[in-house]
Structures are given as structure tokens and as C-alpha cells.
């Protein structure tokens, strides 16, 4: 893993890394931080900033089903991303908390509402 840390040495200050290899990230978060990463997110639940599609999919499907969407389009996916990002306010945002926990009960409801609205405004909602 030391070779991976060496790669960071030539980067700009405070890089943001998302090593998503699972179960073993391409670089472990502690090593990435030692090498200068400002923020690290992985697919693993035992490190801060777990990036997992479970935050999006229950809400995407709920929102699409609620309005009988004929498609899940880019507008709906973007709305889901903004809904997830909106769950963390500036007061709580920090290098170890850039994305909600997959068990955050607010996520599915926020994503569903945003996806349903995006389906309506993009013309794929049937109701």
C-alpha cells in the first residue's frame, strides 16, 4: 500500500479520495490520510463516509412508483443525489461526515420526494 501513498505525493493539496474496492479499498483510509488526503470515502461500513447505493435505491424506486414514472431518467437520479447531499447541513459537515449513514432514516423519504418531483417536472410521471 505504500506505492499507493506515493501516488498522492504529486497531487494538489487536500485531495478527496474514493477508493471503492470492496472488501479491500485500493488504499486504506488511514494511509490515504497520512499521505495527505483531506477526505476519504470507501464502500466499507467500518470506515467513515461509507459510499453505498443503499442510500439511493429505496427512495428512487419509491418515488418512481408513487408517480408511476415511465422511466428513471437523469433528472431523477440527479434529484436523488441532491436529496442525499442535502441531508448533511454545514454545521455537521466535516471530513469524516460527507455522506449520511446508510441507516439514516431520513434518506429514503427525502430521495423519494425529490425523485417524484423530478419525474413530474421532467414529464415521465403518469400521476
From TrEMBL:
**Domain Malic enzyme NAD-binding, first and last residues per copy:** 5-120
Gene Ontology molecular-function annotations: NAD binding; oxidoreductase activity
Q: Which residues form a coiled coil?
A: none
User: InterPro entries of this UniProt entry?
Assistant: Malate_Decarboxylase (IPR051674), Malic_NAD-bd (IPR012302), NAD(P)-bd_dom_sf (IPR036291)
UniProtKB keywords? Oxidoreductase
Sorted alphabetically, which Pfam families does this protein's record hold?
Malic_M
This one is known as Malic enzyme NAD-binding domain-containing protein
What species is this protein from?
Blautia pseudococcoides
